[in-house]
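Appendix C reproduces, verbatim, an entry submitted by the partner laboratory led by Prof. M.T., so that reviewers can inspect both the input and the predicted structure.
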Amino acid sequence: MNSSESSAVASGLAWFKSSYSGAEGGQCVEVAAGTGVVHVRDSKAVTGPVIHVSPDAWAEFVKEA
């Protein structure tokens, strides 16, 4: 897992939030698929840090969540 200082680097990506996320906010994340990497960020802090994980690691996380 790697993280960058800001999501500005990943601003050109198509970000997706879970359909389970409500309009009232809360503890939500957004994900964007890149070439060989999945980017993850806090939906309330879109200019904040981004975590980068491998597609295999993301699939395992989703399976366990």
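The CA atoms of residues 30 and 57 lie 16 Å apart. Additional entries are available on request from the coordinating office.
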